[in-house]
Design a protein that fits this description.
The chain is of the alpha+beta class and 196 residues long. The protein has nine helices and four strands, in the order ααβααβαααβαβα. The chain is globular and about 50 Å long.
Amino acid sequence: MSLVLDPAAQDLLFREARTANTFTDEPVTDEQVQAIYDLVKYGPTAFNQSPLRITLVRSTEARERLVQHMAEGNRPKTAAAPLVAILSADNEFHDELPQLFPHFPQAKDAFFSERPAREGAALLNSALQAAYFIVGVRAAGLAAGPMTGLDFEGVRKEFLDDDHTPLMVVNIGRPGPDAWFPRSPRLTYDQVVTTV
């Protein structure tokens, strides 16, 4: 059985997609980011909780502050990317549940009244949304450079608050020269899938 998605789209989103390490200086517009969000917001999360929050780093001053918190090898990439996004989990996502999950507004208090429950749910579901976001960047014809080599606490203190947990930094733009490392191996179907 073949996939329904066009092979060129399969390549764009998955087979040919890689983490970009260099970018051109072509800007990424607010309209492009809006289009990405308007697509990926439909990706499923538990209780439709949608805890991902995106902080766009555009100003030179903010970029310099962020670069200081990146691992040494990630600093040049983050300094040069046309757009950088800090992806974080909103640990107070439950405040939006009456709007986002209207057929069961009691979910806010029934399942998420305690902070540890919210933090676990926010981490899992915002990680799902981060993956959707990366695929959405690719769907827009742009390249993504997601990175977790950073000082998470430093980024939280610099750009977020105690209610947000940083997940990753994503550099975004058109791929530049020598943007890709060689494709790394993948596990086979039989190594991953078990039937019981």
